[in-house]
Amino acid sequence: MKKKRFDAQKKIFYVLLVAVLLLGTLNIAKAQGLLIPNIPLITHQEGVIDLDSLNLDQKIAQMIVVGGHPGTFIPWKNMQLGGIHLFALQTEHIFNNTIIDFQYGQTIPFFVTADLEGCVTPFSHIRNFTSASEIDDIGKAFEKGFREGEFLSKLGFNLNFAPVVDLEDQIWKCRSFPGNETEISELAQAYVLGLQNQGVIATVKHYPGKTLVAEDPHKLVVAAEIEDEDIYPYKYLIDKGDVKALMVTHIIASGKVDSEGFPSVVNENVISNIKKDYGGLIISDEIHMLGLKNYYGSVDEMYVAVFKAGNDVILNFDRNPNEIYRMIQVVKAAVERGEISEEQIDSSVSKILEAKGFVVR
User: Fold this and answer.
1) How far is residue 240's CA from residue 233's CA, in Å, rounded to a whole number?
2) Helix or strand or coil: residue 27?
3) Helix/strand/coil for 203
4) Which of 237, 239, 119, 132 is nearest to 179 (CA)?
5) Which residues contact 326 (CB under 8 A, 6 or more apart)?
6) What is the pLDDT of residues 29-60, one digit of tens each?
7) Which of 84, 196, 283, 327 is most exposed by smallest CB count within 10 Å?
């Protein structure tokens, strides 16, 4: 009798142990994003993509750039996201291998982005780059862009979030070029030409200006009055026609640019006014910076607002794959109920795919 009772207890123990192991495995898989449904691969015929062949999940996913943490290879690739942003890694070799691993098997390659401004950078422990604040002539600006583009291209990057054209940098003290608005514009243009000569897309930032003279929008909701000289570099660079991307800040702007009490990055009028004269990519600053996130009562409201405003590329560095997938579904629902125009989504996705070298029909 005792033996039977012992055998029964042993069976119950093993059943419970298996159940615990299964639940633990499922929880780990869920936390790593391994239970997220795959978004189908976008297909193309010899570099030509039929936009109508993409479903809404695919389109929205292409508009998102996430943090490229090595532990997220599988979910980021399964979701067919538009890009990854890399932070500091130990060596050039690790950077290159990480990018190769991310790009392997992708029918549509990732944008691989960096913040290389020659100031505080993810590459400071590998190579020294001259800070923008030390560049005082056009030749040096072109060489800075060329050398940084050469370095990034060799590692596998294709999009750099530079140059900064804020007229002053009172926060970092080194990210802005010296001089007045005309001199800064000319230096930035030379940098853009040097960088893009190496096949790396340049991003002029942070529209509409004064992001580095107010309180830090990484930490606070910030407002600033914008003057003619603040937006002069953007007009200059847009008129030149070379810069391929422009980043919009979270500053609540008044004056020559009026974001109507909203952070600039979520104001439809701010974005639409840029698009009147500019056909390149419009990129949001990272949306979890507190200067934007603290403005909203919920992240879902923020997600919808940043897409609805008309940004083409949205930076979301949340490490949780399940949250990125949820963001796609929140935005998809907003499109399906008519709050966000699908034509607007299509326009952004077309620009993204064309910037990646595809012909879109």
Assistant:
1) 11
2) helix
3) strand
4) 132
5) none
6) 554 566 798 888 899 999 999 999 999 999 99
7) 196
